[in-house]
Amino acid sequence: MNKSKMMDVRKIENDKRAFRTELLLAPLLVVFPFIIGIIFINDWYVRDFLEGSLDLHGELILGIIIIVGNILFDIPFIKSLRNFTALFRKSGK
Amino acid sequence: MVKNVKVTLKDTKQKIIDTRDKINSIDFDAHWYRRVFHAFGASFLLYYILPDGNWIHVLKFWVPPIIVIIAILIEIFRLKGFISSDHFFGLRMYEKNRVGSYLFFGVAALILLWRFPQQIAIPCILCACFADPVMGEIRNRFDKKSAIITGFILCMVFFMITWYKADITLVLLVGIIGAAGAVIGETKKFYWLDDDLMIQMVPAFLLLIIWFAIPQLGFSYPGDVIYPGLMPW
Fold first, then answer.
1. For residue A13, what pLDDT is reported?
2. Whether ipTM exceeds 0.90
């Protein structure tokens, strides 16, 4: 195998490794902000809505912003991830 | 025999070319990966809702800087060549020889969480998490002007929502100045100073001036937006 081919194979291996990193991080990137948003909304519900002890409308709004904002970016991200995974599977890599 | 070897070599070559083409389309994925990473940053707001109990207080104080120190070390190793840049998915070409944006983002968020009042820190972090990727998307699909206008409106909404407990005049003032600072911070690109840091720090310092001037302007300080949670035990 000549030097150019070796470099190509090495690059592919490195990119595959990097892609795996993305796959491994994907659940964290998608799920964690969603949990945080739920925590905010739950805190508003328990301490403001049920008890009425504090003015926590800000937490409700922030919770919604975090969830909606993340969903807006998660959908195209997951779509692109699925497309790419399918390409890898098709090529048998 | 020779024919078989030739066919195998040809197949291998074609496979390498095909895979390289597919790998090149990774830019598209990296693009969305970067966007999702930005949006993920909004999770840092968890910092404010954590209870102020003894050991949690220690965690709140030490965990964010430890994460940033680890990121700094990783970046040092990467720039010195001990870790290959190929391990960092989504890294831009120009970031291969300079500090990665994620570190700028983390450092700015740490400074905001540690040293700024939450009324300033929260909208600045939200701007970096959501306004920055939205502006990037609109710039890619339409033009720079549309990106600036959309970014300005979005940032203004974030600042006004966070200051909703303040006087309406102050809310408007903070909204306009904060959004202007965030948009300037995002659009001004420097090689050694990333927009992920600027979009957070420029409005933060502008709002800090307003924060100190609030009594002189005749307004009262707005209340907190997020209250520390109660210990469940």
1. 60
2. no
